[in-house]
Amino acid sequence: MRSNLSRRGFIKAGAAGMATGAAAGLVPGAAWAEKDAAQKVDLTAKPANLALPGVSSEPAPVWAYNGSVPGPVIKVRQGERLDVRFTNALPEPTSIHWHGLRVPNDQDGVPFVTQKPIASGATHRYSFAAEDAGTFLYHPHINSVAQVGRGMFGALIVEEREPVMVDRDILWAVNDWQVALGVVVEEFDNPHDRSHAGRYGNRVAVNGRALPTLTGRPNERLRLRLLNAATGRILALRLEGLKPWLVALDGQPVTPRPAGGDDLLIGPGMRADLVVDLPDVRGKRFRVIDLYDDRDVYTLGEIAVGDGKPVRARPLGRPAPMKANPLPVPDLARAERREVIFGGGAMGGMMGMGPMNMMSMARRGLFWAVNGRFDPKPEAGSKMEPLYTLTKGRSYVFALENRTVFDHPIHLHGHTFRIVSRNGRRLADGQWRDSVLLRPRERVDIAFVADNPGDWMFHCHILSHQMAGMMSVVRVG
Q: Which domains does the chain have, with CATH numbers?
């Protein structure tokens, strides 16, 4: 069955999904009155009171976009311009970063790098064309671990020009909450989280709900968009008893293949799109579990097959590949090579910085370094000198090395790169990504064309690590 939903149809499908806990907030922000070709959205960041999933029905203080967590899903079509009128009603400055989107530098939403912080009470306008189709994320980029940890995040879906053949399109946006006595724990910025694995919550939510159940019909084909919006939690998902097809990573299409192993190892800010054919086993329920920590395996949610009439006589089989986005292909034969070494952290990692540097870093709340540098970061309002200055239009290979004992999802703004090799082993498929999860002591080569001019953040997306030194700037000039 070919899915070619109008916006109204998509919103209706989203409302139906909400009834089963499958999709929440699938309604764009309030449309502007002006009539032109752009998709216009109003967003307001403000304090709100919402019931925390899995805690109690009593409202607790959070921060939210348009009063909901997650914030409203923003939907545009590929090539369409998005205009966002953003109002900051928080008690502190903020911004919006359009995570994974290749936007002009002045639209990237990084205070002290691409724009000034948006003051409390101020309004700011973002406007850009959505070049790439796929599943993306928006969130603040100032005081990040606290603002995102209080609920500030949302999904941005860019629809393909050629609709994907599925019966329903479902988003699962995952985050976690650190909760005590029924409210969010306000200790966002502590040395342990900064120097170890980041802030981990004790309550996990999908689209703002605990343990959702997505119910479908026999032989129904679903597109399941998985988005990790947590500040530090890494997911290693498995759909028990089902045979999902992986069709996209970080919004970029891949050759469809059975999803397994590291395909569903999803760090903060990373995304994976699956096509799932529900079997004709009426009343059957399948768990979606997180296996990242084998001491704490838990159920994220369930996918259930209802008692309705089958959508079709038999499953559809391997899905057709989605059309690739218009990405510039790096010339590996002529690419210039740059080394990027991530160091520091607990468990002896800071010893490599030297005793004097280690003491200096710790006094300033910095526990991580990029190429040995631990300068003050833009989160604190200071100017960063670029780690590297790249020539516009040239191809580069960044040789990333993780010299720590922790995982790091490394995210590059303004560009999409290819993963060329892991630990010296060349990858045949050359996946396109905007983030790569570096395992402890791992080496990964990524390649990209430096085609988007400006200063671009390059950092760990475990937000406690980002704020504690694992953040740098790459300049394209």
A: 7-162 (2.60.40.420), 173-305 (2.60.40.420), 336-476 (2.60.40.420)
